[in-house]
Amino acid sequence: MAIQGTWICVDIIGSRHGGDVFIHSGAGARVARPLARCAKGFGLDKKGEAVVRAVIEAALAGREIPKIDGLYVETHQIDTSDGTPVGLVVWVGVQPPTPRPVYNGWVLDMQAMTTRTSGDNVDLYGDVREADEERHVMYLFTYLNPEDVWSLVGGYYDALTGDHGDLIESYWSLQPGGQWVHFWSSGRLHLADGGGTRLLYGITLQLEERKFESNIASLIRYSNATLLLVEASHKIPLTTVGRHAPMGEDRVAHVLEQVDLAALANPEVPRDAEQRLSIDGVPFIASTFALHSAREKHGDPVAIVLLVEDDASTAESAAS
What we know:
The chain is α+β, with helices and mostly antiparallel strands. About 20% of the residues lie in helices and about 35% in strands.
């Protein structure tokens, strides 16, 4: 038995919910499977799997971790800001541990739409948050890749309608300071008070790389427009892109107060119908339309395109 060693992150809540060790990620990549179904991918034979399982189960139970001759063993627990254990990062191998991947723990309140983050590096998101600070999700996604909105909106829908213990996951990327940072996150839905309380407890892994598209951001970058992406049914603002981005929470709330999202559900209203509004006394023209996706996910997001009224008039004159 030769266990070469790799960092493995255990989904603690998922393991307890399913009654078996559930692996969140390993070797810096998504796994989302029980240990028995992914052990071979880590180069573990039956004996190696049994050793790794024994280490994990001892750590989860709070027992002394068994010492094994010839093997390096290291564990690191990830707790959310309210003290809930969500992840156990484990190394078992004949080689000394390599640098540990970056993991953060978080809790998302689906009623308040706020997150609290803790863990290895909360500065990754570029939103100047403090560890354990409660902030609206819009701050977390200030520099979000717009194409990731579809999967995130689908995840929100699942969290708002799903059952206790459901696994909700997403790949996503941010670009704070002009540099892309990539993540894979998964969370477990916690219901209390007869469903009146919905919390999502999760783990985020920073990825070394990720293949993704960024077409919307590229289109907006070369115009004077600002794009606000929103989950329409619950009016959850996700991110802003373009000339006036990032927009603060108060400004976004002011826009949503003035824009008629319900018009999207009315087939008699043209999809490119314009609405006039003001932001800090500056007149804007807003076009609102749904961003339908071919993906089998619930809750299509809505795009609000904002253009300063003078800019819109100039554009119309140039086109005529």
